[in-house]
Amino acid sequence: MYSRNTFIVMRGYPGTGKSTIARLLATSLHAPLIDRDIIRRVAVDIFGNASQVGQFSYELLFALTREQLSLGLSVVVDTPLTYRRTYDACLELARTYDAKMLVVHCQCPPDVQKRRLEGRKGQVSNFQITSWEEWERWQARYEEFEDHGCIIDTSYPMDESLAKVMRSIHELHGQQTYFEELSDNHRL
Q1: How far is CA 77 from CA 2, 38, 62, 88, 126, in A?
Q2: What angle do CA 100, 72, 4 make, to 5 degrees?
Q3: Domain interval for residue 24
Q4: Is the pTM of this model over 0.70?
Q5: Helix (H) or strand (E) holding 185
Q6: Helix (H, G, I), strand (E, B) or coil at 11
């Protein structure tokens, strides 16, 4: 069965514009946005910064994502995609619900990232990185792996980044249409 639902997973370092692009994508696609930072912030407010809050926030993120995909909806997931195991879990969800998955890998020059991080002070919860020094301590945790996604430089105007992602989504589904047409013709 042909489905145009798209599972968009954000990826990138803190301060690279993931949340901004995720919100633009969710609005443009009329798709639910599931933001790990919001889930974690609420969990910390309720449970305190317990050791299991991080795992809980991902479990809830995946439960909400599963529900959206099971309904045949597109969904935008805002997460740094720090670990390969998180990427693998996303791939499994996409396979299970026959959704096309696109990783949107946000990047920007280090000076832009630094300015954005330092501009966060007072605007985010206490677990988000708000200085270059915090980022340097955290960076070693970020696992490098191939995600076959759409790479955007968020230092360019946001409408350019959004247009590039929308083209990637179109191409992703265009590939599906192309292969379906081939298999339909093959049956004739």
Answers
A1: 22, 11, 9, 14, 21
A2: 45
A3: 6-187
A4: yes
A5: helix 158-187
A6: strand
